[in-house]
Design a protein that fits this description.
Elements: H1 19-72
Length: about 80
């Protein structure tokens, strides 16, 4: 039969923590934190250059649309 637990008597014993499980959880959190940091750096870099990229793309599109007319003497 299972050992019965007597409450309110004596000093409680300390249970050893399950360190491999805690280490695995810490490694998982560290990995997810690194992924989040990389994604944040990438998205902030993209957002910092989006206006310059849009301006360059717009100018190139206008040049490609109006360029043939300029070379043919239409404009």
């Amino acid at each position: 039969m299972a050992e019965e637990i007597a409450y309110g008597q004596g000093i409680a014993t300390v249970v050893e923590p399950n360190m491999p499980m805690i280490d695995a959880i810490v490694e998982d959190l560290r990995y997810k934190g690194q992924l989040l940091a990389r994604e944040t750096k990438l998205s902030s870099g993209v957002l910092a250059t989006v206006s310059i990229g849009f301006a360059i793309g717009f100018v190139l599109a206008i040049v490609m649309m109006l360029g043939p007319f300029a070379f043919m003497g239409g404009l």
